[in-house]
Amino acid sequence: MQPSSRIAIVGAGLAGACAAFAxxxxxxxxxxxxxxxxxxxxxxxxxxxxPLMTRRARPNWQxxxxxxxxxxxxxxxxxxxxxxxxxxxxxxxxxxxxxxREAARTYPHFVQWLAPEEAKERFPQxxxxxxxxxIPQGGAVSAARLIEVLLEQSGVPIHRPVRxxxxxxxxxxxxxxTDRGAVHRFDYAILAPGYGYQAHPxxxxxxxxxxxGQVICLQRPPSLDTLPLVLANVHLAPYGDQVFVGxxxxxxxxxxxxxxxxxRWLLDxxxxxxxxxxxxxxxxxxxxxxVIRPHRPLPVLSPLPGRRRLWLFSALGSRGLLxxxxxxxxxxxxxxxxxxxxxxxxxD
Length: 348
Known about the structure:
With 348 residues, this protein is an alpha/beta fold. It is built from 8 helices and 18 strands. It has helices spanning 14-23, 63-77, 94-106, 116-122, 143-154, 201-204, 260-273, 320-334, and strands at residues 6-10, 28-32, 48-49, 84-90, 112-114, 132-140, 158-159, 164-170, 173-178, 183-186, 188-191, 209-219, 229-231, 235-239, 242-246, 282-292, 300-303, 310-314. The longest helix is centred in the first third of the chain and has 15 residues, at 63-77.
């Protein structure tokens, strides 16, 4: 890639921020973001990552490379983005406990199985009647803070709030049309619009699904000062003097307003695993939207069908922290050589 190449990134969420950071040393990069606030998906995300995120605790696709890419990114931002290490994944049924025990036997370098008694001894605040996995490589970061720091350290111009309403690919570049009536020319455009994909007819036709999620923020009582990151059918992520609990999974929704019923469900489920949270005060309820590929649960990094210079970086789902740094790290090489992309992340 020539240093004189001009690349537009549409969207300043996690995908867009990782792309900007990966490309800013290789080309002239500019970011267009439609809103003033951070990407909406991450208002409802727990910021969790670990190598065995499937329901049966099996390795994720490209798990080693993904974790390495995330660690490189975290090393690059340093202590500007605090990282909480270690994750307790609680089995919420006997069947899942069987799967977890098998995972511990098969992947001892990733996880340690804790029988109920051992889990209770090590983590007395947590109820684990079926046992749990201790995952040292698991962790949590504030995705919103990571986005902020990546964009700042990349030093690229950010046009905000500016909505890209249309685009046109030409033989030698791409023209982006904004809601302010301006037209910008670039050599490539990487579309990372998150939930905003539905506003663009070319993207709305793709086999994606939007899923609303809600989290609640609790005031953490002193008795939970040593609470680890906990993942069961909900997650509990301590940050400072608060605990974030989430997330709901709502593929059918009509608005983004928080729901009192979902707040109550989250609080009840959190208290099932950490009873002490029942005494906590709900400080806030937040929502966001994740984009997924329902029938192929992997992210997308690909030229749009029939295009060469217009790319899509999307469908990170609940594994954005695991996959966004990895896919973004490929961009300097694959933008001009898309045939090098793994088939799994390409659009059909």
